[in-house]
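In line with agreed milestones, work has continued on tokenised descriptions of protein folds. One protein thus recorded appears below exactly as we store it:

>
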Amino acid sequence: IQLVESGGGLVQPGGSLRLSCAASGFTFSRYSMGWARQVPGEGLELLTVIHTDGHADYSDSVKGRFTISRDNAKNTVYLQMDGLKPEDTARYSCGRAEKPYLEARFPEDFLSWGQGTQVTVSS
């Protein structure tokens, strides 16, 4: 399993970023995929999950601002982040659910996470 995130960087408050996660080593379309973030010294915060049928769940912290999507033909999951706030500063990682067709909803439902990409929101 390989998950490679890209698209992070420095953005001003109120700005937008689009993260990508390229997946390989498994049949992408069979798995829920998620995005999580972590700040040094704190635990992993699961933000959003997109399931195999395309429906998505969001945490309250990002609902209405972030949008997850997937392209099964490209084995890629995306995270569109709008209305960014300084408190969104973190390392963002994508993850794959532990089992095929499992509707993953908690961090422990995920088998593995990528190395992540840093997002910094600052003026």
Summary: Residues 22 and 74 are 8 Å apart (CA to CA). The chain is about 0% helix and 50% strand. The mean pLDDT is 96.
